[in-house]
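// run 5 | inverse folding | seed 20
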């Protein structure tokens, strides 16, 4: 009996060593960049040239080790890209490609790469809010050229990403759709580039609360006080301010106010398209693809996906039917809009800037 147990243990150990050697062989001989470009993009979302550029930025930030069994930095990045792109590290149907990593190693790689991509210099390089007047005018001009809406610096909204139930402060993450999530506030420009992200709030937080806690709100208020005529576009979940243009609810049919609201909604729709592209490409963020990580790590993964979204800088992608269906499920899982509560001055004090835009858009329509 004892001999049989020892033999079984020895055989198990032999199989473990064999598996380790097999994985090491795969890692040492794995050349992902030898894949055809189309297959590489399907697996990792980036083009090869973009992947090389990313590696130049973050590989120096990854831990180095002299062990001959160490995972190459490029493989660490690729394994993380697969998780961001597909929601898990599993061999994908339709491909035999394998990076030769155990689940534990993949988890370690994901943590390391995600931390590297959240380095302040990386976030500053790829996620840029317009900080100079010249930059603001360029962004605003693109919105005007594409949508005919003046003065826009970006469109803002929140999107929910599902996480497992946290062990601490669980109630802060439980949203109105009855699941645990992060509510990530993002601002995008007319080209669907994300110029600001804050994925640190739980799903119980209202969009307006996150906005009022944001340094961008203080920046926009400061620009207004300095006389710069720029604003963001938000839905009725945000309070109307001279630097935040919201829809006019219950506007009279065929009125200047209704025309303004149609233009505002049409322009603001870029943030919804942006969310669709972001989550369609980086599917770990989909609301029904629960991230099994601590909220802080999940938020950093969201930041990493935003960096990658901006790196790709090509948002004309067409998704297959399966991805479109997943995006539809994600929209259903988003909590319903709750109108903002207005704190501070009465709304009639805050309307003049919006009223001027209403009249400008109405005159433009009549002239054309």
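// decoded
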């Amino acid at each position: 009996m004892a001999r049989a147990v020892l033999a079984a243990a020895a055989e198990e150990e032999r199989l473990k060593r064999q598996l380790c050697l097999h994985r090491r062989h795969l890692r040492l001989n794995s050349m992902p960049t030898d894949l055809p470009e189309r297959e590489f993009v399907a697996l990792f979302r980036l083009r090869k040239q973009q992947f090389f550029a990313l590696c130049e930025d973050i590989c120096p930030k990854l831990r180095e080790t002299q062990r001959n069994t160490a995972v190459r930095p490029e493989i660490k990045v690729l394994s993380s890209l697969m998780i961001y792109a597909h929601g898990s590290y599993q061999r994908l149907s339709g491909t035999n490609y394998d990076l030769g990593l155990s689940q534990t190693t993949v988890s370690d790689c994901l943590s390391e790469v995600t931390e590297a991509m959240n380095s302040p210099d990386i976030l500053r390089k790829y996620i840029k809010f317009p900080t100079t007047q010249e930059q603001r005018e360029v962004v605003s001009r693109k919105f005007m050229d594409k949508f005919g809406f003046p003065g826009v610096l970006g469109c803002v909204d929140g999107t929910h990403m599902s996480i497992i139930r946290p062990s601490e402060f669980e109630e802060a993450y439980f949203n109105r759709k009855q699941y645990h999530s992060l509510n990530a506030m993002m601002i995008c420009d007319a080209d669907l580039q994300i110029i600001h992200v804050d994925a640190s709030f739980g799903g119980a937080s209202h969009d307006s609360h996150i906005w009022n806690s944001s340094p961008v709100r203080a920046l926009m208020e400061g620009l207004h006080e300095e006389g710069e005529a720029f604003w963001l576009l938000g839905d009725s979940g945000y309070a109307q301010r001279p630097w935040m243009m919201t829809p006019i609810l219950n506007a009279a049919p065929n009125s200047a106010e209704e025309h303004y609201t149609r233009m505002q909604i049409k322009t603001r729709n870029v943030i919804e398209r942006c969310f669709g592209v972001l989550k369609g490409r980086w599917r770990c963020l989909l609301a029904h693809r629960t991230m099994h990580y601590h909220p802080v790590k999940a938020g950093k993964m969201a930041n990493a996906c935003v960096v990658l979204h901006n790196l790709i800088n090509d948002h004309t992608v067409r998704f297959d039917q399966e991805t479109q269906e997943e995006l539809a499920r994600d929209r259903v899982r988003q909590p319903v809009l709750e109108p903002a509560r207005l704190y501070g001055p009465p709304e009639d004090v805050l309307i003049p800037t919006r009223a001027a835009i209403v009249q400008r858009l109405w005159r433009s329509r009549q002239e054309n």
